[in-house]
Structures are given as structure tokens and as C-alpha cells.
Input
Amino acid sequence: MLDRLSLTLKAGNGGRGSTALWHGKRPYGGDGGDGGNVYIQGTTNLFSFSSLASERTYKAEDGQEGLPLNKFGGDGNDFTLFVPLTTEVYIDGELRITIEKDGQRELLLKGGKGSVGNLSIKKHPHWRMRTDEERKGESAQVDLVLKLASDIIFIGYPNAGKSSLLNKLTNAKAKVGAYEFTTLEPQTGRMDGIILMDLPGIIDNTHKGKGLGTSFTQHTEKTKLVAHIISLENASTFNTYTKMRKELLLIDPTFGSKKEVVVLTKSDEVTQDKLESELRIFSKKKIAAVACSILDDASTEKVKQIFKKEILPD
Ligand SMILES: Nc1nc2c(ncn2[C@@H]2O[C@H](COP(=O)(O)OP(=O)(O)OP(=O)(O)O)[C@@H](O)[C@H]2O)c(=O)[nH]1
Ligand SMILES: [Mg+2]
Output
């Protein structure tokens, strides 16, 4: 997923004022139009910057020049850069704007003002024409950083069934595979207005750069609940949980202050006895845990209700 992008953005230049003379004498030149502005606007229709990456530069339209017969040049059209949520906009390394709402629209760069033509100057003798420099629209080298929003993140070792569960609970179509590291980038899906995010599998020493690394933390800052996804195929799901949680805190200690729930997956692969004894261990330790199988709708419905209870206000 493209989650960092550098672009050159340019507002439109103002149009020149006309210097046309009627029969070589009487000024009758019109004013130039204003250059278009550059806006940035949030949309929930995008999830990465990939649709923006085909161009390196985006530009609002220049104002048109003024023309003889006192014709005014038209204003240049504005340009709106649509970005996914949440996008941080940096100019010269400094955070300028955070776009975090659908439809949030901010003025980023102002278009240049058009110049008056010679007829306007005749009417207002203290006016003067703007120079090329004065008509220039603002421009900037802009760095965009995407921080995908999520209410719940799925953390787990490879093959735990994270993507399968995401697909079952949401409209997502994440790739599922019976091999490690099927998911290479964060995937999101919506469940009754709650955003779930499936992350690439972690392994021991991910915090040291092993496996797929830790870059996913760019997208987990604001998440409210960590769902530890653990396959019941593990000999001891509690030991796996402990190991995984330790690794997660080494990746980013702030995970320690988030709510968490354990989801034991692939319950169809084990006996009822095993399932119950694994759940009992979590219950003794007062850790919220639930078991499910993507082949059992009632079980995934239970997971859904637990997620909703944790996230939605009463
Ligand atoms: N029997 C059974 N198999 C499952 C279940 N959930 C997932 N699987 C299988 O487990 C394998 C891994 O599933 P994924 O959903 O790709 O696992 P993942 O945790 O996303 O894996 P990575 O992306 O590699 O980290 C696939 O072959 C799935 O079909 C389940 O509830 N029961
Ligand atoms: Mg996956």
C-alpha cells in the first residue's frame, strides 16, 4: 500500500492585464482573472495514495489574460486533491494540516491575483499592473503521510486466520492462504460502522526487523482495541498469547494501554474439550477471550457482538 507520497502542488497564476489601445491611443484592455486555489479534501472512498501517484505535480488552473474591448479574463479553476483518512500534510517537514473527516476541505495554496488591465488603471490612476512575480500562485513541495483509521486491529502470528476472520465479518476481500505472510499490508473492512484492520503477521523478533517488520505501526496509533488472533492449533494458546503480547509491546509499548480481547480461531479443528479448557485458562486470568471458526456462523456472530460491545457506546 502506498502510504507516503511527495508531490509538488501549484496554485494557478493570475492572468495578465491587457495593455491594448484603441487606435493606438485610448486604453481599453480588460483585467486578468485570478489563478485557481489548491484544496485538499478527505474522502472515505480512498484507502491509499496509489491513485495519486501517477503524477508528481498537480496544478490549479491559471487565470486567463485580460483582452481588448475591456474583456476580463476568466478565473482559473481550483484544484482539489482528494486524500484518504487520515492524511497528514507536511510542508517543509512541518505538519500543516490533518485531514481526518470525510468531506473535510482545507485551503492549501492560494492562487495568484490577476492583474488589472489598462482601462482599469485609467479609471483608477493610483492602480498599477501586477508583475509576473506578483501574479504567481503559491506552490509547495508537500509530503503526505497516511495513517489509516481503525477501531480494532488484528494481531497474530502468520496463518492464524486473521484475514479469513476479517473477510467473514466485513465487506473486505483480503487474500487468504495456507502459508505464512499472505498478508503483506494492512487491510481494512467495515463492520456495522466499526473499522477492523487486519495486519501482516508478526513473529518473534519482528521488533528487530525480522519478518515483515514494524511499519504497520504507522496505522495503529489511534486504534481502540487490540484483538489477539490465535489459532487453536497451538498446543497452548495462552503461551502463544503471552509470547505474542510481549513481542507486540517491544514493537510499540503504547499497545500496552489499549483494550484487548483474545480470539481463538479454527475451533472446527479441535475437540470441544480442548476448546473449553483453552478458554478456561483465559477466563481464570481475567482476560476476555472468545473462540470461533469461519465455518460456524454462530461463533463469528459472537465475536462480532463482543467487538461491538467493546467499541460502541452503550
Ligand atoms: N479449518 C479452518 N481453517 C481456517 C479458519 N480460518 C482460517 N483458516 C485457514 O487458515 C489459513 C490461513 O488463513 P489466513 O486468514 O490467510 O491467515 P492469516 O492470519 O491472515 O495469515 P497471514 O496473512 O499469513 O498472517 C487458510 O488456509 C485458511 O483457509 C477456520 O476457522 N477453520
Ligand atoms: Mg492474512
Observations:
- The first strand starts at residue 4 and ends at 10.
